[in-house]
Amino acid sequence: MIALRLTKLTIAVSTALFSSGQSVAAAEAEQPHRLARTNVEGAAPPDPRFPQVAREVQDGKVLAGKKTTEVKLDEQPAIANNELRHTFVRVPGLLVSEQQIPSHFNVNYRGLGDPHESEFVMFFEDGVPLASGWFGYPTMYYLPPTERLERVQFLRGGSALLYGPQPGPAVNLVTRTPLPDADFSARSRHIGGADGLYATYNEIRGGAGDFGYSVEIDHREFDGTRVNSDADVDGAAVALYWRESDDAHWRLDLNRYESESGEAGRLPTPLYQQDPTLTTTPYNRLWIERTSAVLSTRRTLAGDYTLDAKLWHAQLDRDSRRVNAVFLPGQLPPNLRSNFDHQDFASTGFDARVSHDFGTNHTLTFGTTAYTEDSPRWQRSNTLLDADSGNILRYAQERGTDYVSLFAESVFRFDRWSLIPALRVESLALDIDETQASGTVLRDAIDDRFHHLVPLAGFGATYEFPAQGLQAYGNLSQGYRPMRYDDVGNPTSNLIDGNDPDPSKTLSAEIGLRGSPVDGLFLDVSLFHIDFRNKIEQIQVSPSEVERVNSGDARHQGIELAAEYDFFTGREGRHLTAFASLSVLDAEITKSLTPELVGNTPAYAPDHIAKLGLIWRGFNERLKLGLTGTTVGTQYWRDANTATGNVVTFVAAEIPSYHVLDLSAEWALNDHVRLIGGINNLSDETYTSRVRSDGIEPAAERQAWFGVELGL
Predict the structure, then answer these.
(1) Using only C-alpha atoms, what is the Rg of the chain?
(2) Distance CA 417, CA 348 (A)
(3) Least C-beta-crowded within 10 Å: which of 211, 460, 498, 689?
(4) CB 280 within 8 A of CB 266
């Protein structure tokens, strides 16, 4: 267990929060005059001054003094097949590493970590974590269908103070609330497109008395552009809402998700340049099953306190079949076998947050989060490459996580100033019990518990320029990346006895200016600097032993700009919105046990990411047209910044820059029939945004799609 180190930032924040506690008592004694509170049910609105920014305090979370982006998805045309590039095109700087598999979601931000399965970014659905294993295996294999979403909320530095782990940002996908007063409605969307795409989304929703409900079923399938790149996805969700009183409500969400997809494999650079449609792993498959239940409540307590609480349980099963070699033209690898890897993630979590207004205009929030997980893992093999299961056990592990955190944050408002101190303390323990060690390792079976106590502190501030419609903001926050199961108990590594790396730490600083200086225009520009300390690296201790140690540092700094302008602002029923964002990044590895890495650019840290578009909404929102584009600069796919492989397996060091245009449209013929369609990769660019040690993952070529939605 690491020692609890009281840094200057922690001491200062603790003092400020203690002072706020004293202020609460004093303020309640003074009983100042306060305006009557009005509770509004439904989706939490954004900041009324800047709709692109989240509210200062939302669901018990303080967002003031942090850089946030709110994207309402109904302000752009329909999105087909959960296309992440479209979903995040108005989110500045977020890098989507594209893969044509519906159960892999790969993003990163500001060069913080490999985007593989989004391990460095926290994803949430209505505030509930979506990672397979929130700490020990923070991979993304599930996202809700975009048709279910109301908006995307993107939170930068300071996200660890609200949600817990990972040095990167947090993406909260907010679904539509089934309100009791809603009229009955139903819709059925059907989309067809290139490569055998068929997608359907079906939903009913409504309310009666104090109850609201929604039920949805969705399905997607496609053949893909390569052999063994097909996919089949099914999902269902039920949301029930009960208005207990004017000051309290409950919501129950039940979700089910299943997917099966082929993995066509990656290509060496020469083969990719010759024919990007080749398949190198014709037998690899991936299966995902996920079931979840979430019970949440919001209620006003005695003394003008408000409670936001969630209790959830999720079960995710991940199964894969992967052959131990790739099939390159003219080569037949020897000793082939299929490895069947199985991982379960059964998790239960609880999050409770209390907010309280005190004094003349201040807010205090505090709460706790607890989480526990059981995650058995085993691997079996079979010499029959297309078998349905393995018959030889290679290794087996029982894994588990126990986590609890306490946190507090306050907003002190003084005329134009707001000062926001925050403190969070986390206790995290991972258990590894290796019931059968792999025959490929020389070490003993692992049976240990790995525990760390992590304090986090942060401080934010805002300053208002009301005459100019602008707000200056700044934030200084700590974050961390917890140890994973593979860091302390990788089943195929000869980890030395006592291997126990500390969590990696980050210190993020950002200062910016945002607002609406003229009607119809919103802009947000900021400077950021991130120190990433004690990154985990692997060293060779002896010919037969390795250790995972905290020996790597990096710094990431740059500027991020975003702007939106509605040319028809103030004209009801018509909008012509132009948007553009640019994230310029300067990232460098500053310390490593491998001297050759020092001074290199970290993997997946392009020097710029630009996004732009033009969206027209007319005839009272009945017609929507969108032309959007994404440009990503040259980047390296590994920290070494060098190529790998031989003449046959050569993989170039760089991922070349690329530019992608997308066109989409939505037309409501009447209240019951809506036509939708679009063309992805309009210019048919051949590009990749994803490379790993075994080669290049081709991005999708130009694809057209068309659909119809019927509604009541």
Answers:
(1) 25
(2) 40
(3) 498
(4) yes
Tens of pLDDT, residue by residue over 344-356, are 999 999 999 999 9
Q: What is the DSSP string of 339-377?
A: EEEEEEEEEEEEEEEEEEEETTTEEEEEEEEEEEEE--E
HSE on the CB side for 272, CA within 13 Å? 24
Mean predicted confidence (pLDDT) in 528-557: 92
For residues 585-592, give the mean pLDDT.
Answer: 97
Cα 535 to chain centroid, rounded: 21
Phi-psi category of 110—alpha, beta or left, where left has phi over 0 and alpha has psi -120 to 50? left
Segment 590-606 mean pLDDT: 96
For 476, the 3-state DSSP assignment is strand
pLDDT tens per residue across span 328-349: 887 778 889 999 999 999 999 9
DSSP 480-512: EEPPPHHHHH-TTS-BPTT--PPPEEEEEEEEE
How far from 323 is each of 289, 320, 382, 383, CA to CA, in Å? 22, 10, 9, 9
Threshold 0.70, pTM exceeds: yes
User: What tokens does 484 get?
Assistant: 């994973």
- Lookup: tokens for 629: 């584009």
Q: What amino acid occupies position 178? A: P
Per DSSP, the residues of 586-653 read EEEEEE-SSGGGTTPPPTT--SEEEEEEEEEEETTTTEEEEEEEEEE--EESSTT-S-BS-TTT-B-S
Residue 217 DSSP SS3: strand
